[in-house]
Amino acid sequence: MRFMFVGDSMTIGRAGDFTWRYRMWQHLEASLGAPYRVVGPSTGLYDAAADAPVSYDYAAPDFPVEARGHLAAWGEGWCHLAPRIRAAVAAQRADVLLVSLGLIDLGFYTDSDSAALNARTFVAEARAANPRIRMVLLPVIPNVRAVTDAAFAAEVERFNELLAKAVANLDEPTSPLLLASHPPTYDLADDTYDGTHPAPSGEHKLAAAFADAMHEAWGLGGRYRYEPAAAVS
Q1: CB count, 10 Å around CB of 156?
Q2: Chain CA centroid to CA 187, Å
Q3: Chain segment 206-220, per-residue pLDDT in tens
Q4: Burial class (CB in 10 A: 0-12, 13-18, 19+), 62
Q5: Which of 99, 109, 125, 151 is the most exposed place for a label (fewest CB within 10 A)?
Q6: The model's pTM
Q7: Is 163 exposed, middle or buried (0-12, 13-18, 19+ CB in 10 A)?
Q8: pLDDT for 17-40, tens place per residue?
Q9: Which one, of 54, 45, 41, 40, lies nearest residue 13 by Cα?
């Protein structure tokens, strides 16, 4: 089974981060009980000074290079990745996509309706490369802009509703879709370092959202073992 992480800045991470991808790798190692690979065309982190994904300064020295693969980029969303996902799935032979997108679309590029259409295109394009692919999609999670900008908060809420409808409408037995749940106790002060990007505890909670969805719906792995006291590292 070949997993590919797909996302924006919260998924690629920046230099010095653990990333929620690392937390998910730890979970898969501990609980999957079957051969798997993490795949993706990139392995780097975003470097702010270079404004490019050229850093390999992960906070966890035990995160192996072969598990760092991803299709994620700082500042990209559904509108950027929908045209690229078919080629990436084909090249990486991905079986499961773990997708966290939407905040960038709504913040800079599109409205909720257009973002939802791009999400549907993304699903169709991924299936064109692998008709049996599985996908877990995360709604837009709490962020600081939604706290201070009522219009943006309304767009986030509407997009999440449209995404839920798309998952329900597009789910197929041969290519199942899951909508991951919002982390139930996601706190911007504790779980992010800037109101948007996950701090260590937030990384654990994002990984848990995906892990628990796969466990409950597909029986993949176990439930995520998240210990708040240990989440700082």
Answers
A1: 24
A2: 18
A3: 999 999 999 999 999
A4: exposed
A5: 151
A6: 0.96
A7: buried
A8: 999 999 999 999 999 988 999 999
A9: 45
First to last CA, the chain: 28
53 near 18, Cβ under 8 Å?
Answer: no
Chunk the chain into consecutive blocks of 10 residues (it has 233) and report each block's average pLDDT, rounded to whole numbers.
Answer: 98 98 96 94 97 97 97 97 98 98 96 98 98 98 95 97 98 98 93 96 97 97 74 51
- Which domains are assigned to the chain? 2-230 (3.40.50.1110)
What are the backbone angles phi and psi of residue 98, rounded to the nearest 5°? -110, 110
| Residue 162: both structure tokens together | 């449209």
CA-nearest of 137, 141, 136 to 192 is 141
Instruction: Give me 168's structure tokens.
Output: 């329900």
Residue whose token pair is 């009522």: 150
Cβ neighbours for 184, distance < 8 A, ≥ 6 positions apart = none
Question: What whole-number distance in Å separates Cα of residue 182 and Cα of residue 140?
Answer: 8
CA separation, residue 221 to residues 25, 27, 101, 171 (Å):
11, 8, 23, 21
Q: Return d(Cα 59, Cα 42) in angstroms, integer.
A: 17
Answer for the pair 73, 111: CB distance below 8 angstroms, yes or no: no
